[in-house]
Design brief:
It comes from Streptomyces griseoaurantiacus. The protein is mostly helical. Helix content is 74%, strand content 0%. It has ten helices and no strands. The chain is globular, with a radius of gyration of 19 Å.
Length: 197
């Protein structure tokens, strides 16, 4: 797992360490015993924290599996909002999706994705998470004064970008899959820019 950037204050570092310990403990228990066989109380006991402490870091059992979801969401929106001045949005998004796919297909990721694919609750959570990513990315695109596409085009772009990550992680060659999807996105993007007013 890739750690979230290190907080600067002592209290923030301690909070981040507790969150990471809970997430790591949960994932280990889920992989050892199966997602459905492990309860929140089991995770809290094994991590040596109170159940209330666990819930102060994670809103649900499903969130324990997707412990970096908020960071991923921020990274997608920052690819748009914090890109180099004058840089087009699509190359910045392509670069970020490549980075996210490398994380999602890194060493040890396959068993976690199998667990997710085998759990209706985790699949539903992932779909809700992707919907939130697409909404956040759409908002960032709509707020960009340099993008003249219609709202429909920007919403579609956000969905394609979010789906690119899912498609690529399931592909035999994830890096090539990202490039293939973005080649199609770029063609559609150009066509949208050229549409008659």
């Amino acid at each position: 797992m890739t750690a979230v950037p290190t907080p600067t204050g002592r209290r923030e570092r301690k909070k981040a360490a507790t969150r990471q310990k809970i997430a790591d403990t949960a994932l280990r228990l889920f992989m050892e015993h199966g997602y459905d066989a492990v309860g929140i109380r089991d995770v809290a006991a094994e991590a040596d924290v109170a159940v209330t402490t666990l819930f102060s870091h994670f809103a649900s059992k499903e969130a324990l599996v997707f412990e970096q979801e908020e960071d991923f969401e921020r990274r997608l929106t920052r690819a748009v909002t914090e890109r180099t001045p004058g840089e087009p949005a699509l190359p910045a998004l392509r670069r970020e999706v490549h980075a996210l796919v490398r994380h999602c297909t890194g060493a040890g990721a396959a068993p976690v994705w199998r667990m997710i694919d085998d759990s209706p609750a985790l699949r539903a959570y992932e779909q809700a998470m992707k919907l939130r990513y697409a909404r956040s990315l759409t908002a960032a695109l709509l707020a960009d004064p340099g993008l003249s596409h219609s709202e429909t085009s920007l919403r579609a772009l956000a969905w394609f970008v979010v789906d690119a990550q899912s498609l690529a992680r399931e592909a035999e060659d994830p890096e090539a899959a990202v490039d293939e999807v973005f080649t199609m996105i770029e063609a559609a993007w150009r066509a949208g820019a050229e549409r008659p007013a």
